[in-house]
Amino acid sequence: MQKIDLLISSVERRKPISFHYNKPGKTPGERIGNVHAIFIMTKKDSTKSTKLHIVQTDGVSDSLQKSPLPTFRMFNIEDITNVEIRESDLEFEIMSSDYNPQWTGYNETLAKV
Questions:
Q1: If we measure between CA atoms, which residue out of 67, 4, 8 comes closest to residue 36?
Q2: Each residue of 25-52: b (16+ CB within 10 Å) or e?
Q3: How far is CA 24 from CA 13, 20, 54, 80, in A?
Q4: Tens-place pLDDT, residues 73-109
């Protein structure tokens, strides 16, 4: 199964995932979280990139001091590898305090809870 298919499946089934984020300048290592939305973001220069809104629940993070886990994070799908659905974990709850399914940035949404 391709990465995007795994991610969409995790959203549809509300199953947590583990993954590695390989963006230059970010701490390497495994992260764990709940994907709430997969969407295409159009930048001011009209370029597009596919993003994930994830409630990160565990793993490495560059900003634990600013916002301890669990917290919402945005990741570039292009920089994500080793995606695995955590089948043995329970279905995750929607983080209603921070998640806005009506956010205007979701105008090109591939999946959302």
A1: 8
A2: eeeeeebbbbbbbbbeeeeeeeeeebbb
A3: 31, 12, 19, 12
A4: 999 999 999 999 999 999 999 987 888 999 888 889 9
Looking at the 3D structure of the chain, how many domains does it have? 1
**Cross-strand bridge partners of residue 47:** none
- 79: Cβ–Cβ under 8 A, 6 or more apart, which residues? 21, 22, 23, 26
CB 11 within 8 A of CB 37: yes
Determine contact, residues 10/16, Cβ cutoff 8 Å.
Answer: yes
Structural domain span for residue 92: 3-112
How many Å apart are CA 12 and CA 112, to the nearest integer? Answer: 8
